[in-house]
Write a structure and sequence with these properties.
Length: 205
């Protein structure tokens, strides 16, 4: 009979996320993970297989707590146009509070791990497609209710919003400046606004 685990898996994944997020995959050793999580290397191997397996679980955990949580709070609870604004305002606020300049673990994974690892390339690509799909649903909803322009297709708007999101998360690692980051989204807000709809959403939350 397998012995029950003697640690809190969620707490271990939280600690692993912080370790990988701060140092990257290559910059994090199993010893670092053991020290950060407070459990032995043997226990980590028994529970997650190896460092790569733990990284995969940690990345999934991070995505559920970040993007998954954010979409759950905004989509269906805010009008589509306002959901987009709230999403970006929270991203900017999160970026400005990132004193260690860790950036986004998903974007970091896209740059560090995904180019050399087919499995992680699929994971990152799938997540980026989910983000783009969220923007597409918001664009389609806003086009239906008249708060988002129909001059551009929902697909094109979703791709543009995704690219701006990635740009913010990368740029904020070197220049976490409020005016700069808000300057990236203000033209996007103007582009989204329908020619016939009055502005209903403030630029800043």
């Amino acid at each position: 009979m397998a012995r029950p685990r003697e640690f809190d898996e969620t707490a271990v994944l939280d600690a692993a996320v912080q370790c990988f997020w701060q140092h990257g995959y290559d910059g994090t050793s199993v010893r670092d993970l053991a020290e950060k999580t407070g459990i032995t290397s043997a226990s980590l191997y028994n529970a997650f297989g190896d460092k790569r397996g733990l990284y995969r679980r940690a990345l999934d955990h991070y995505l559920a707590q970040s993007f998954g949580d954010r979409v759950g709070r905004f989509e269906g609870h805010l009008p589509p146009r306002q959901a987009i604004t709230a999403f970006f305002e929270e991203i900017i606020d999160r970026s400005l509070k990132d004193t260690q300049r860790k950036g986004c673990m998903l974007v970091n994974s896209a740059l560090e791990v995904a180019p050399h690892d087919p499995e992680f390339r699929r994971v990152v690509t799938g997540m980026l497609e989910q983000v783009e799909a969220f923007f597409r649903r918001c664009a389609e909803g806003g086009q239906r209710d008249g708060t988002i322009t129909t001059a551009q297709s929902a697909d094109d708007l979703a791709g543009l919003l995704l690219s701006v999101l990635l740009g913010i998360r990368v740029l904020a690692r070197t220049r976490p400046e409020r005016d700069l980051l808000h300057g990236l989204v203000r033209p996007i807000y103007d582009l989204l606004d329908s020619d016939t709809a009055a502005r209903k959403v403030p630029l800043h939350s």
